[in-house]
Specification:
Strand content: 5-15%
Order of helices and strands: HEHEHE
Distance between the termini: 86 Å
Helix content: 55-70%
Amino acid sequence: MGMKKRIERVSVGILFICLLTISACRGADFHSTKSLERKTYKFGATYMQMNNPYFQDMNAHLEELVEVNGDVLICRDPSQDQEKQNQQIEEMIDEGVDGIFLNPVNYETVK
């Protein structure tokens, strides 16, 4: 086999390997990017009152857990007023929260 033929075959082989590598890299990037895509969730939290250290600690830990996952936590303080808490819940729903953590002021009249 002549030197020219050998160079052509090696060149074709290298080109083929390059195309396979590029194709594999594109596929890997596509799949890894797709697996990294994640919806960001928005949560709401409302407790009986926020001047109580118990609820402050609970909210701080909850906020930490939510934010570690790249999500958002909205906290509201109804100040022991169930009517105000019901209004805040409705506002959070209007804001499009995906879930609400709730400690009702009055479990019988919470809406």
